Amino acid sequence: MASLADATPPIALGALDGRYRGAVAPLVDHLSEPALNRERIRVEVEWLIFLTTHQVVPGVRTLTDDEQRQLRRVVDDFGAAEIEELATIERETQHDVKAVEYFLKRRLTAIAPDPADSGLAELIHFCCTSEDINNLSYALMVKGAVTDVWLPRASALVEAVATMASDLRDVPLLAHTHGQPATPTTMGKELAVLAHRLGRQLRRIGAAEFLGKLNGATGTYGAHLAAVPGADWPALSREFVESLGLQWNPLTTQIESHDWQAELYADLARFNRILHNLCTDVWTYISLGYFAQVRGQGTVGSSTMPHKVNPIRFENAEANLEVSNALFDVLASTLVNSRLQRDLTDSSMQRNIGVAFGHSLLAIDNASRGLAGLDAVPSAMAADLDANWEVLGEPVQSAMRALGAQGVAGMENPYERLKELTRGRRITGDDLREFVAGLGLPDDVAKRLSELTPQTYIGAAPELVDFVE
């Protein structure tokens, strides 16, 4: 039997790099292994430029504007050839960050070849532990993935749900609480609830903090002060971290504590869970016939039953959201722990960040495509409402309660009387109107209740859609 492991090009082990590659490809620029190395190179380059432009080490010349441009171009031009070169170096060093240092030293020698400048290379990775570079790199990677890829896709999904809510704001819907017919609402209002919940999580994620540190092997600036005792290293560290667009963490062990990551992943997981709720609700509405899957559905629904169009987009989304949340949950719970001043648990764990984001992004893609293929079926919703006149027991008994509180005679035991009329059996509009007529209600109340139907008993549901933010 031929070995699939030997196939060329290599076959992906996971679905994200296989059949779903197209949906998650934008994350590769942010959360892949090469993206991590590119950000490591970026941080090392910016640190070298920072040290020379700020004259931190006495007697070291400032890099010229052209030299700075060439160094930054190393980051911008980082591609397939550079990935392979860096991998070759790492096979020798057996250390990924040290490989980045040697890679950059080669580039700097080419950019500043004068033997008098040979000492500049010693400022690459100056006073840094690997975690100084890694924590900043991961912060830049995750920030880019959130702001450039995940948030735009998630925001577009929420906007689509909000638009559906607005379009269906007036379409009456029989509610189901505990799976039983309940007080009518509108399809728009129910979608608005989900859009509002999702939007709130988006605002939390959009306000996320991305922290970083650069303070040495145990967070004390020990090497920094030993090398250049006259520098204000905490101030320099803060300025450098903030120059990268990150927030400075002043107190750490060897590692940045990752609390910001745990906070972000908890919010992302909560968004995922609400989206999962949306998928199961829409799936149920489809099964009830309230939505038809018609637009853009040129696919095979069932391999044997031609009449079927299965709600697979929402089912696939559910599965991917569950995988994503399993990863986000373990990331959030694990990354906040480190033995004493350092262990490497976080290093292995952070290599799964891209997979967690990937499954979330894939779910967003699935849900978005599923929603885009739906048409509401108001007639099906109306039919269910017309078959459940007993839901009007609530407004009748509530009106009786209000009248009884005002001292109107004959309004005793309203709940019990409506329970006797409606519980365990179906009633018609005629049954309800006959009951209302025999209550001795004031004329205006009797008229209002007699004119009420399941379709019109929707309260302020349409107006509530306007509260979506």
Automatic annotation (TrEMBL):
Keywords for the protein's UniProt record, in alphabetical order: Lyase, Purine biosynthesis
This enzyme's EC code(s): 4.3.2.2
Annotated Fumarate lyase N-terminal domain residues: 18-317
Adenylosuccinate lyase PurB C-terminal domain: residues covered: 338-458
Record-annotated membrane-spanning stretches: none
Top enzyme category: lyase
Pathway: Purine metabolism; AMP biosynthesis via de novo pathway; AMP from IMP: step 2/2; Purine metabolism; IMP biosynthesis via de novo pathway; 5-amino-1-(5-phospho-D-ribosyl)imidazole-4-carboxamide from 5-amino-1-(5-phospho-D-ribosyl)imidazole-4-carboxylate: step 2/2
Xref: PROSITE patterns: FUMARATE_LYASES (PS00163)
The reaction(s) this protein catalyses: (2S)-2-[5-amino-1-(5-phospho-beta-D-ribosyl)imidazole-4-carboxamido]succinate = 5-amino-1-(5-phospho-beta-D-ribosyl)imidazole-4-carboxamide + fumarate; N(6)-(1,2-dicarboxyethyl)-AMP = fumarate + AMP
GO MF annotation list: (S)-2-(5-amino-1-(5-phospho-D-ribosyl)imidazole-4-carboxamido) succinate lyase (fumarate-forming) activity; N6-(1,2-dicarboxyethyl)AMP AMP-lyase (fumarate-forming) activity
GO biological process, any: 'de novo' AMP biosynthetic process
Biological role stated in the UniProt entry: Catalyzes two reactions in de novo purine nucleotide biosynthesis. Catalyzes the breakdown of 5-aminoimidazole- (N-succinylocarboxamide) ribotide (SAICAR or 2-[5-amino-1-(5-phospho-beta-D-ribosyl)imidazole-4-carboxamido]succinate) to 5-aminoimidazole-4-carboxamide ribotide (AICAR or 5-amino-1-(5-phospho-beta-D-ribosyl)imidazole-4-carboxamide) and fumarate, and of adenylosuccinate (ADS or N(6)-(1,2-dicarboxyethyl)-AMP) to adenosine monophosphate (AMP) and fumarate.
Name under which the protein is recorded: Adenylosuccinate lyase
Organism of provenance: Pedococcus dokdonensis
